[in-house]
Amino acid sequence: MNERIESFLNHPWAELSVRWLLGGAFVVASVHKIADPAGFAKIVYGYQLVPHAIINLIAIVLPFLELISGAALMAGIYPRSAALIIEVLLSVFIVGISINLVRGHQFDCGCFAMGAADRPSAAGLLLVRDLVFLAGGSYVLGYGGSPKWCLWHPTTG
Amino acid sequence: MMKGFVILIGAALITAFTINHFSPVGIALIGDWNTRDGVISARSKLNVVVHSREISLAQARALYGQKGVLFVDARPAEMYMAGHIKGAVSLPVGELDRLIEAFARAHDPDTHIVTYCSGRQCQDSHMLADRLSDYGFSHVKVFADGFPAWKAEGYPVE
After folding, report:
1. Residue of chain B with shortest Cα separation from A60
2. Which of A7, A25, A101, B55 has the lowest CB atom count within 10 Å?
């Protein structure tokens, strides 16, 4: 049984599928944040975890980190570096969501302006999703074989 | 791996700041997030938060009930139904496109309007004030602390 799982995980198609799913999820997640940076900044504010002075910088930069690393992971441009960036982002999200779960903080400004799509989803679900993504990222990082369909994959990349 | 890491992060930073600079929905590098200064905002290019429009709880109370003063509730209709400042009319920003024409026809442009929503973390009151001034209402104020503060003070609600 273990051997079958191992041979499945070592298969290049498995690695490619995980890269596409994880990369695709990050690209999709970045789109509405890029379309509405002010709304996303308000969500960052709502987490009440970062100093006011850097909220906007996070709202400007983070969606593009997601977009570029997600796209790079899919296209196979420095795929391992892209996976590493994604792992760092996911770790930050997981820590942030966990802190707010533990302290029972959920932001609700009672406003329409945030838009339905930006309403905070159930934190527990987000946490589970990010943990699954984190596992996917570690798999890509630890993959021993030669990844399939890479545009630019230097051995160091 | 280090090289790819630096290249990807560099690409993300350059793209992020370039696009934010030229985008019509771009935001300032530092936002306006301190509720002590009034209603918070990211200071985007579409920003509607104008602190000079904001009035305090005491100022709102002083205007309340005066002739020619109308309180307008910017929150969603369900929240208005659940409780609002007594005498206020509902004009939810989510339905503004549908409702604002009729509102503008029904009220004198010289009416002194006080908009409010759920407090300083909520921009709906400013969004409403912005649209009303576009429609020719020239005396529009924003009661920044909104319904929760009004209710907490024991002022008239219904």
Report:
1. B16
2. A7
Per-residue tokens: A58: 């996070």
- Residue A87 vs residues A131, A137, B41, B90: alpha-carbon distances, Å: 10, 6, 30, 46
Q: Which pLDDT tens digit goes with each residue over A136-155? A: 999 999 887 777 777 777 66
Structure tokens at B94: 């989510």
Q: Which residues of A touch B28 (CB under 8 A)?
A: 56
Its CATH architecture, for the domain B54-152, is: 3-Layer(aba) Sandwich (3.40)
Chain B segment 94-113 residues within 8 A of A by beta carbon are: 94
Helices then strands (H, E): number in chain B? Answer: 6, 5
- Per-residue pLDDT tens digits for B50-90: 999 999 999 999 999 999 999 999 999 999 999 999 999 99
Tell which phi-psi region holds residue A108, choosing left (phi > 0), alpha (psi between -120 and 50) or beta: beta
pTM assigned to the model:
0.88
**pLDDT for A94 beyond 80:** yes
